[in-house]
């Protein structure tokens, strides 16, 4: 096995979501000076790169993923000067910074869209996707087709000014850009990419990276939910006809000129398709976020339809996300981000009795898998989902709100609403968006003022301050895992995966192999003791574990890593 080492392969990346990371001025909203004040928390953990979610100017309908100006900073987060300081302070600590690149759509408030909507003859009309209405048999105006938006309702919005609809795969104020137009693409390269590369950033996380190329026929999508008016339409906008041409152009024109890294959010994709994006020599992106693991149990067409999963499903997901690694492709390892609930709740056990132990178990799993490892703010201290009792008013995300409101509009029964609230509590993006719990003081030390979103009630028990000096804390355990991963990177970052107990519903045991070494990882995913069976020949020497003593029994949520000789 010849290993093709790269800085962005060995790196651990820590995602900062600015609204909830740290507030420096008491207005209840996280900000860039707040991030600067906590850089050592990230550095000491052992992270190498920071991914900062959108901090651009924005009306904040989708928390900054609706950008009104790529070249300025949302004033509540700070200024361009604050960004210079952030870049400088990150580099001074030997870390790097990547930003979020949101170029499938802008905010409706972006000046490009304001021009585009002003008249049918405006030079920027064609920068977005406009279509005339359809009329039904009764002569009622209807959207151009039946596509559903990811945030509920039609993906088309009627605009009075010119009597046409524009496409928005996400919120109404997130009109999709028309990538067919080369002037649009050039403007994006300049404003969204080059502007920030020239300021010294080290790469991008590329938002909805598989959606730029729409099937230009704009056909109705097949009806998969007969009781719904609008239908999932991935078929016509995911991995579309020109998507690879667009990525190659962007790489050639801009990204290739820098020593930059890119990671694209692509979701679910076949291996052949993945390799087109990340295959060495393709000149597109370095790696992708695939959703096999984070969306376990959810219907890929509608995340709020939740059917549950078992441990073999999780093993399949891990395999799917790693199978194409090698000289050809590269992958990512993650189980949290700003769009996902908390991993301890989803994949471990957030009962106070087990949450630290199961959090450590997950740390052992994630830090042993090949690919570039990503952590999301708060994951390192074991933040959990919000309490089940929180009413709908505490949920702020547009995805959650729109879905809930649509249910109300349809006249859903109390029972249906109660069932939805359960699923919402499990999978809502809000779970990741509560303020980071820094200490046990008021508002968890996140802000001196009232936070924009309620702090999780468990902050007196789960907070960073109480973990720094505790050798048994999750923070320090993650630290040890990240350092072991670095020390044996040929095994953990680059090694081959072999699962030993695929059908086992309770344990997850696998080997990681490099040319000359093998490690065995054994993880008990239950709250019961289980007999330990090595499932491999050879002498075992313990490298790491989340219990202080190991025996012939695997304790509840016990995980071990052994060298195999
Ligand atoms: C991506 C982002 C998500 C956002 C959406 C629209 O999926 O991660 O937060 O809502 O794109 O930009
Ligand atoms: Ca602030």
From TrEMBL:
E.C. code: 3.2.1.20
One Pfam family from the record: Alpha-amylase
A GO BP entry: sucrose catabolic process
Keywords: Glycosidase, Hydrolase, Maltose metabolism
Catalyzed chemical reaction(s): Hydrolysis of terminal, non-reducing (1->4)-linked alpha-D-glucose residues with release of alpha-D-glucose
Glycosyl hydrolase family 13 catalytic domain ranges (all copies): 15-433
GO molecular function: alpha-1,4-glucosidase activity; alpha-amylase activity; glucan 1,4-alpha-maltotriohydrolase activity; oligo-1,6-glucosidase activity; sucrose alpha-glucosidase activity
CDD domains in the cross-refs: AmyAc_SI_OligoGlu_DGase (cd11333)
The protein's name in its UniProt record: Alpha-glucosidase
Protein source organism: Candida tenuis (strain ATCC 10573 / BCRC 21748 / CBS 615 / JCM 9827 / NBRC 10315 / NRRL Y-1498 / VKM Y-70)
Upper lineage: Eukaryota, Fungi, Dikarya, Ascomycota, Saccharomycotina
């Amino acid at each position: 096995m010849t290993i093709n080492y790269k800085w962005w392969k060995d790196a651990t990346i820590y995602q900062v979501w600015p609204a909830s990371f740290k507030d420096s001025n008491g207005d209840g909203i996280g900000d860039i000076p707040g991030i600067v004040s906590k850089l050592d928390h990230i550095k000491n953990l052992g992270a190498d790169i920071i991914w900062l979610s959108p901090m651009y100017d924005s009306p904040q309908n989708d928390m900054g993923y609706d950008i009104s100006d790529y070249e300025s900073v949302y004033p509540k987060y700070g200024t361009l000067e604050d960004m210079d300081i952030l870049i400088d302070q990150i580099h001074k600590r030997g870390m790097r910074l990547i930003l979020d690149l949101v170029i499938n759509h802008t905010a409706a408030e972006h000046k490009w869209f304001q021009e585009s909507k002003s008249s049918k003859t405006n030079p920027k009309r064609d920068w977005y996707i406009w279509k005339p209405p359809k009329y039904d048999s009764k002569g009622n105006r209807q959207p151009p087709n039946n596509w559903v938006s990811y945030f509920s309702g039609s993906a088309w919005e009627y605009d009075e000014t010119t009597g046409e609809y524009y496409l928005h795969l996400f919120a109404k104020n997130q009109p999709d850009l028309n990538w067919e137009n080369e002037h649009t693409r050039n403007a994006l390269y300049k404003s969204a990419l080059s502007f920030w590369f020239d300021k010294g950033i080290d790469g991008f996380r590329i938002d909805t990276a598989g959606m730029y190329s729409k099937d230009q026929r704009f056909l109705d999508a097949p009806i998969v939910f007969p009781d719904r008016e609008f239908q999932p339409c991935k078929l016509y906008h995911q991995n579309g006809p020109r998507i690879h041409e667009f990525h190659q152009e962007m790489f050639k024109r801009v990204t290739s000129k820098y020593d930059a890294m890119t990671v694209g959010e692509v979701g679910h994709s076949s291996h052949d398709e993945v390799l087109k994006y990340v295959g060495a020599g393709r000149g597109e992106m370095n790696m992708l976020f695939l959703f096999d693991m984070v969306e376990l149990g959810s219907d890929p067409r509608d995340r709020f339809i939740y059917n549950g999963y078992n441990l073999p499903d999780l093993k399949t997901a891990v395999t799917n996300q790693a199978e194409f690694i090698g000289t050809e492709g590269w992958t990512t390892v993650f189980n949290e981000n700003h769009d996902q609930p908390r991993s301890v709740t989803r994949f471990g056990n957030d009962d106070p009795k087990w949450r630290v132990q199961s959090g450590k178990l997950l740390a052992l799993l994630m830090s042993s898998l090949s690919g570039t490892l990503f952590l999301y703010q708060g994951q390192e201290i074991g933040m959990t989902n919000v309490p089940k009792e929180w009413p709908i008013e505490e949920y702020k995300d547009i995805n959650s709100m729109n879905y809930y409101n649509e249910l109300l509009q349809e006249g859903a029964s109390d029972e249906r609403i109660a069932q939805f609230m359960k699923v919402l509590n499990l999978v809502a993006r809000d779970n990741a968006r509560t303020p980071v719990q820094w200490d046990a003081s008021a508002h968890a030390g996140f802000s001196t003022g009232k936070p924009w979103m309620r702090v999780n009630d468990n902050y007196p028990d789960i907070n960073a301050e109480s973990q720094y000096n505790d050798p048994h804390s999750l923070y320090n355990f993650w630290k040890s895992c990240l350092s072991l991963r670095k020390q044996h990177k040929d095994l953990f970052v680059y090694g081959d995966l072999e699962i030993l107990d695929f059908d086992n519903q309770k344990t997850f045991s696998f080997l990681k192999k490099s040319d000359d070494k093998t490690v065995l990882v054994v993880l008990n995913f239950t709250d019961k003791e289980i007999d330990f069976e090595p499932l491999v020949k050879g002498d075992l020497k313990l490298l790491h574990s989340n219990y202080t003593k190991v025996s012939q029994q695997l304790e509840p949520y016990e995980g071990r890593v052994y060298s195999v000789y």
